[in-house]
Amino acid sequence: MKKTLLIASVIISLSGISFIFFRLYSSLQRDASVTLADLPVNLDFPADREEFSVPTAVPILMYHHISGYPNDGNPSIYASLWSFEVQMEWLSSHGFRTVGLDYFRNPKKIDGKPIILTFDDGYQDAYTQAFPVLKKYGFLATFYIVTDDIDRNGYLSKNEISEMRSAGMNFGSHSLSHPDLTAASQRRAEREIYNSKKILEQVIGTTVTDFCYPGGAHNWNVENIVANSGYTTATTTDNDVVFGKIDPLRLNRLNIGNETNFDDVPALKNL
Ligand SMILES: [Zn+2]
After folding, report:
1. What is the C-alpha to C-alpha distance for residues 124 and 138, in angstroms, rounded to an integer?
2. Ligand 1: distance of its center to the CA of 5 in Å?
3. Domain boundaries, the chain
């Protein structure tokens, strides 16, 4: 009996030790995959948060896929090419002019009503479907990229991003791997937010100032990491137009799906 107990406890301790080694090995593997790990030294300090005053409402539209949606897809994150073209035509004929997210910091006089177009997740249909329509209407947009997905099947490639950038499109970070940043460890959240900025900057060749919270998940701590990493704006998935006193790290957006008819969206129609 004693012998059995002894053998059992040896097996339990050995499996415990190998589990610890496995965890250690996995975390080292993860670290090894990060090529730009120079985190800023002052991440612990709270960011200097400023508010902006936005006297005229500025809608930020949130798109994901521009394509027909699969049967198992979520229709709210798909707009068909046809719907998207109708929506862009509506904006153009109703006097909207696209601006970038820097508009809140440097509002310039524009000939029309300002609107911001954003596309989340860096799907390849941003290049094949959305980009030609945007060019046709002389519109610009901001594309939020999950940097681990660059060059993956179904996602934007480095070359496509460069071509879109040369045509005036903006790019922001949507983290390295799209985790819930409010549930991630501090170290991981810092890496997701800061390293994705550095990687994207290498791809587009300019400074990246715009961030988008994966899944819309944000809290005070995540917002401070975003600010301290050098971003000046961050968008949420909370449904509202940007108006009045605003925090540039909590910019709300209007989700646009396949069925969205802009005549039925008071936030757009009444502007
Ligand atoms: Zn996303």
Report:
1. 20
2. 51
3. 1-29, 50-269
Is this model's pTM higher than 0.85 or not? no
What is the whole-number distance in angstroms between the Cα of residue 236 and the centre of ligand 1? Answer: 10
Please tell me the distance between residue 180's alpha carbon and the centre of ligand 1 in angstroms: 10
Q: How far is the CA of 215 from the centre of ligand 1 (A)?
A: 5
Q: What six digits make up the tokens of 43?
A: 């991440």
Distance 109 CA to ligand 1 centre (A): 31
The Cα 63–Cα 84 span in angstroms is: 10
CA of 146 to the centre of ligand 1 (A): 8
Token pair in block for residue 177: 């791997």
List pLDDT tens digits, range 175-230: 999 999 999 999 999 999 999 999 999 999 999 999 999 999 999 999 999 999 99
CA of 214 to the centre of ligand 1 (A): 5
Radius of gyration from C-alpha coordinates of the chain? 22
Q: Determine the number of helices (DSSP H) and then strands (DSSP E) in the chain.
A: 9, 12
Q: How far is the CA of 232 from the centre of ligand 1 (A)?
A: 19
d(CA 182, CA 221): 8
The CA-based angle 87-91-93, given to 5 degrees, is 115
Report CA(66)–ligand 1 centroid distance (Å): 14
Question: φ and ψ at 202, to 5 degrees?
Answer: -65, -35
Ligand 1 centroid from CA 118, angstroms: 11
Model confidence pLDDT, tens digit, residues 145-173:
999 999 999 999 999 999 999 999 999 99
The three-point CA angle 252-237-53 to 5° equals 10
CATH topology of domain 50-269: TIM Barrel (3.20.20)
